[in-house]
């Protein structure tokens, strides 16, 4: 019972972290659209961190909309752990451990992705506001590394749970 209660609290905490990232992203985009964005904003950045595509200020909501869709897809997917591909043999003995591990890791993935996208929106707003793309190159490099780190963590955890 105590382990189950801890698992529920942990799952709730991960959801709250993910939702906070999603809410922060929407709040930043809404604030920026209403107060600091010019009519034309960068909507894509090249490998060098410089803007290479431009759009209207309303497109600041594109990343939060994509994040919301991703959040919903991951929230639905986690409800069907029996359909996941685990990369290891699933037996009656390890099925529950594998599913619990995958659910936990997908929760962390959701949280990390929401916050990575929120940080990218901050850099997008700053780039639009100041005309400088300083920092977005670092953010665009660190973001995939953070996500890759969670994927590697998941793979290692699944191997151990098998």
Shape: elongated
Low-confidence stretches: none
- How much helical structure, as a percent, in the residues? 55-70%
The number of helical elements comes to: 4
Radius of gyration: 19 Å
Strand order in the sheet with the most strands: 1-2
Q: Termini distance? A: 23 Å
> Mean pLDDT, rounded to whole units?
87
Largest sheet: 2 strands, antiparallel
Tell me which oligomeric state these chains represent: single chain
Structural class by SSE content: mainly alpha
Order of helices and strands: HEEHHH
Q: Give the total of beta strands.
A: 2
Count of the separate structural domains:
1
Percent of sequence in beta strands = 5-15%
Structure description:
The chain is mainly alpha-helical and 162 residues long. The chain has one domain (2-161). It has four helices and two strands, in the order H-E-E-H-H-H. It has helices at residues 2-35, 62-77, 95-130, 136-161; strands at residues 40-45, 51-56. It has a two-stranded antiparallel ribbon with strand order 1-2. The longest helix is centred in the last third of the chain and has 36 residues, at 95-130.
């Amino acid at each position: 019972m105590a382990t189950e209660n801890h698992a529920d609290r942990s799952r709730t905490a991960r959801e709250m972290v993910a939702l906070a990232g999603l809410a922060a992203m929407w709040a930043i985009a809404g604030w920026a659209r209403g107060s600091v964005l010019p009519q034309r904003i960068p909507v894509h950045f090249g490998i060098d961190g410089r803007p290479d595509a431009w759009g209207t200020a309303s497109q600041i909501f594109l990343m939060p909309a994509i994040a919301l869709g991703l959040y919903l897809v991951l929230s639905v997917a986690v409800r069907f752990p029996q359909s996941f591909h685990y990369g290891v043999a699933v037996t009656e003995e390890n099925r529950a451990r594998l599913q619990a591990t995958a659910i936990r890791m997908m929760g962390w993935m959701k949280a990390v992705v929401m916050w990575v996208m929120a940080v990218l929106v901050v850099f997008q707003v700053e780039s639009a506001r100041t005309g400088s793309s300083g920092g977005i190159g670092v953010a665009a490099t660190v973001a995939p590394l953070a996500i890759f780190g969670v994927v590697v963590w998941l793979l290692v955890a699944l191997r151990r749970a098998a």
